[in-house]
Amino acid sequence: MEGPRSDAEAARFLTQATFGATHAEIRRLRGMGYNAWLDEQFALPANLHKPYLDAQAAQGLEIYQNARQEVWWDRAIRSPDQLRQRVAFALSEILVVSDQSGAIEGTPFGMTHYYDVLLQRAFGNYRGLLGEITLHPVMGHYLSMFKNQKPDLANNIRPDENYAREIMQLFSIGLVQLNSDGTPVLQGGNPVPSYDQYTIRGLAHVFTGWNWANCPRTNGGQWWEWTWCPSGPQGNEGAGWLLPMQEWEQYHAFEDSKVLLNYPGVALAGGILPAGGTAMSNLNAALDNVFNHPNVGPFIARRLIQRLVSSNPSPAYVGRVAAVFNNNGSGVRGDLRATVRAILMDNEARTLPSLASNRGKLREPLLRQTQLWRLLNARADDNRYREWNAEYSLGQAALRSPTVFNFFLPDFRPAGELSTLSLDAPEFQIATDPLIASSLNRFGASVYWSWRGNEYQGPEDIVVDLAPYQPLAMSNPRALIDYFDLMLMNRTMSDQMYQVLVAHISSLDPNSGQGRERVQDTIWLIHTSPEYAVER
User: Cα–Cα distance between 366 and 378 in angstroms, integer?
Assistant: First the structure.
């Protein structure tokens, strides 16, 4: 039997594969098994985000970034394609764009469309995803590839290197050469760089000549059209934000050869892209060159494992997933569907790690909130999620990281024991004293203030439903704690913590609020505990 063999195993799987387990989904998963559940999720159509903004615009509502945040919460809490939504969020923390950039902060439609690309491509091929985000105007503006021009030394114009650098460092191969299991290649005890400034320069020359789609080309496409070309009507943004950028050949650096990545089996002789070609042919050759680098499999495997399962996967785990990325069993490289299945079905993901193993990860604040709201059926009376600025209390909001390096670095190690043990702990980078306090206050408010039936809550407030648990709280506090141990901690609570909770909850008046206070304290004390904070 493949499993899950218990409710705890099912809850743990759903913690990794969704925005939070529900009791109904645990029952369904136990009835069908892991692989059937995965097959079902892979087959579900993408519940896209942009139609939500379109519907609001059709009602005459002003559309800002708050609408984009609103639909993100709606899909995370209520959408049936939970695996796709969760993987897209993981990808958004790797292939980063952010509305904290002045270049795209005023483009909620464009940014929502970018997120929809991640949703649509979440189970597709990574090469296709790389190609689509490269030509997306949101990425073009965010990392300044948009209207990047070929060299013109007389006018002191040199190709911008921003996207050339980040597509390698953050989106594909990383800074150093990797073995197939993700460990660094060493020479003389030192890691070997995976690229150099010549490669950055070569790619920067490739990424020249791209402008809005469907621009007029009168007068041969003169410099003023390159600079001021309109993007077409659609609200205040323009339809160009929703279409792949198009090439303007006169601004593309086709005259020179370009140094790209050189590695065993590289398609280009010596990693050199010859002079000539077109903006599109050179772009495809360069993306193929990056995509086929041997680092990509272990690099992306480790990044996705960190987002879904564990901050410190073993090299063997990374190697197994990378092998599937390199070949899905049918000779296809970059199959994200196969890669996601390999991540979630690996023995290291499906086996509960011991405390001594150093596996697992600190829960992201945003995921702590989605888990709580999914579990407690949180919603406003009109089913909207007006949670527009979660970053103020949680340090995170979708597509709102402070830099292209995400909210936290994948190899961040806080000073102290974790650094001494050489353990990565990405999420600890935002676990600052003020953010810990603000996030715990926020979670507490979700339980003690924002509950359905509280007379001080308005119809637009997002409130949780505690009523289903109140009869159990009045009659059997041990069973109440058992239930939330399952739903929040996958039954990993220590006996010591369990006994402390039983003593406290049993001491509360069972009739206070008809058991509501017992429910609130149970959820709050579990949700704010160190044992819960580290997901195993």
Answer: 15
**Could you identify the residue written with the tokens 């406290």?**
504
Q: How many domains, in total, are found in the chain?
A: 3
Start-to-end CA span in the chain (Å): 23
The tokens describing 359, both together, are: 């596996």
Cβ-contact 514, 470 below 8 angstroms: yes
Asked if 371 and 20 touch (Cβ cutoff 8 Å), the reply is yes
Q: List C-alpha distances in Å: 6 to 27, 372, 432, 526.
A: 10, 21, 36, 21
Helices (H), 292-425: 296-308, 315-326, 336-345, 347-350, 365-375, 391-394, 417-420
pLDDT-based confidence at residue 476 (cuts at 50, 70, 90):
very high
Q: Identity (one letter) of the amino acid at 27?
A: R
Omega within 30 of 0 (cis) for the link into 4: yes
pLDDT in tens, 99-148: 999 999 999 999 999 999 999 999 999 999 999 999 999 999 999 999 99
251-289 pLDDT per residue, tens = 999 999 999 999 999 999 999 999 999 999 999 999 999
CA distance 487 to 469: 13
Please report whether residue 429 resides in a domain.
yes
Do 351 and 466 fall into the same domain? no
| Residues 6+ positions from 9 with CB-CB distance below 8 Å | 3, 350, 490
Tell me if the pTM is above 0.90.
yes
* 99, burial (CB in 10 Å: exposed 0-12, middle 13-18, buried 19+): buried
What does the block give as tokens for 29?
Answer: 């998963």
Q: What is the DSSP letter of 312?
A: S
Band the pLDDT of 234: cuts 50, 70, 90. Answer: very low
Q: Has residue 114 been placed in a domain? A: no
Same domain membership, residue 331 and residue 183? no
Q: For the segment 11-44, what is each residue's pLDDT rounded down to a tens digit?
A: 999 999 999 999 999 999 999 999 999 999 999 9
Length of the chain: 536
The set of residues, in sequence order, having a beta carbon less than 8 Å from that of 75 and lying 6+ positions away, is 47, 49, 85
Residues contacting 415, CB < 8 A, separation 6+: none
User: Is the pLDDT at 336 greater than 90, yes or no?
Assistant: yes
